[in-house]
Amino acid sequence: MRAAVHTAPNEPLRLENVEHADPADDEVLVEVTSCGACHSDLHVNKGELPFPTPAVLGHEVAGVVAGTGRAVSGLSPGDRVVTSFIMPCGRCAQCAAGNEEICLEFFAHNRAKGQLYDGRSRLSFPDGTPVWMYSMGGLAERVVTPATSVYRVPEGVELSDVAAVGCSTMTAYGALRHAADIRVGDTVAVIAAGGVGSALIQLARVFGASEIIAVDIGTEKLDAAVRLGATATVNSAEVPDPAEAIREHTRGRGVDVAFEALGSTTTFEIARDSVVEGGQVVVVGIAPPGSTGELNLATIARRKLRVQGSYGAKPRRDMPVLLDLVARGLLRPQDTVSRHYSLDEVNEAFGALDRGEIRGRAVIDVARHSG
């Protein structure tokens, strides 16, 4: 099969012939229809997140089941599915405690080594050389992934519309539901209106937030944020103090929750300074290792601020909820998709993402050829 292979930091992805193993007993083989282009993949490709090479990136997959392992139930060949980027092992201490978004095996094997939970990749070059997997390695024509990451797509929903549900939307849902526990009437700021930020805006509206303030540096992204549900916007490139501008939109009060959705010192500081006394700062963006943000301990105590991280939602509990919202038309992930590329154009997609040109999400239509 064809796959876009990451060979070294800051090198273009190379389209190569790669072989996949048959699914193990608890795994599923999926023919990939679409795969979202995520900033996490970009961080890996630029060497900002350490990961072994050669590897296939891509973890926002929609497609059709092509085969299942002997122990898999509830999924059959021909089922239309979407995957979650977190592939919970279901056995470790965190999974047992209900915290499968921080599954110990996922981080120890996949994020550290590009493997599944038996210590092997499911991808290789024809000569047998292993090719490592970032999640399931979705920038390929087929993927093998644990069944815990595979979910049926409701009838009437286009596969290319929901490719990013298993990452950007699920990440946003985890931040809103589990980290912040947003309630009807809460006020929120979303700092950085990219893929995850766009999903945060959509879902904050679904959750009943009374004010949703989107912050970014691009007029096009901010205009799109309004269409997705933002009640106000702040162009942080055009105001001297973005946090103060957020406060002005809340009559000087500040927001109940500020979501940092990029992973940078600057956006963290905006989020930190924009919340009300007793408010929450939720860090969602994945920052390069070594990135720091300052906290004044006296201010945290006096203002009773809460700062917490959120890596994602709980796939087995939350993916069915998200797909039900999509089926009922309450959540429209397709409205965040602004560009489509073929697998041949994968480097164009990530180049545009790196330059900040993508509004919301770009999707790689794997089965489509350029031209």
From TrEMBL:
It comes from the Bacteria. SUPFAM superfamilies: GroES-like, NAD(P)-binding Rossmann-fold domains. Gene3D superfamilies: Medium-chain alcohol dehydrogenases, catalytic domain (3.90.180.10), NAD(P)-binding Rossmann-like Domain (3.40.50.720). The keyword Metal-binding applies. PROSITE patterns: ADH_ZINC. Its cofactor is Zn(2+). Residues 8-364 form the Enoyl reductase (ER) domain. GO terms for molecular function: oxidoreductase activity; zinc ion binding. This is Alcohol dehydrogenase.
